Amino acid sequence: MRTVFSSLSGNLRISQTFRFEGMVLNLIPAISAGFPSPAADFIDVNIDLGKELIRNPSCTFLGRVRGNSMQDVGINDGDILIIDKSLPPSNGRIAVCFLDGEFTVKRIQFEEDGCWLVAENPKFRPIKVTQDNDFLIWGIVINVIKYL
Q: Which residue of the set 106, 123, 128, 146 is catalytic?
């Protein structure tokens, strides 16, 4: 399914649609990351992924990561970001930004001299946003869906 909607700088194409509505799965209430717990030998709780992962459905979008600039915070190539456009940007948050015609995910850092987009990989330099850039903080990353 394809959807096209307008952004400030033209059209953005969304080529995949994911649906969580009505998906209820079994949840193991506690998985020990240390020693195994014999009390968790049964599954007794259900979880609705839509309600668990998405706070504001009408303002939430998914985006697939391409690249490794955020690998040091566990965001890797192929991961799916859950992005909430209703949240205000604040210093240190991980955001999906529209910069000069392309989407990028970076940590936003506000300073007296402007805004910086900071990668979480030492191979990438911070990007200073200037008045010459076409720039929009598109949304805040609230969750990451990973494939192992």
A: 106
Residue pair 118/57 in contact by the 8 Å Cβ criterion: no
pLDDT at 113 over 90: no
* pTM of the model as a whole: 0.76
What gap in Å lies between CA 25 and CA 48, rounded to an integer? 6
Q: How many DSSP H helices and E strands does the chain contain?
A: 1, 11
CA gap 64, 69 in Å, rounded: 14
Residue in this structure with the two tokens 């079994």, named with its chain if needed: 26
Q: Verify whether residue 123 is a known catalytic residue.
A: no
φ/ψ of 30, rounded to 5, equals -150, 120
Which of 37, 69, 85, 123 is catalytic? The answer is: 69
Q: For residue 48, what are its two tokens? A: 């609705």
List 128's β-bridge partners, or say none.
116
Per the annotation, the verdict on 85 as an active-site residue is: no
Q: Could you give the CA distance from residue 67 to residue 79 in angstroms, rounded to a whole number?
A: 10
Report the alpha-carbon angle 82-132-93, nearest 5.
30
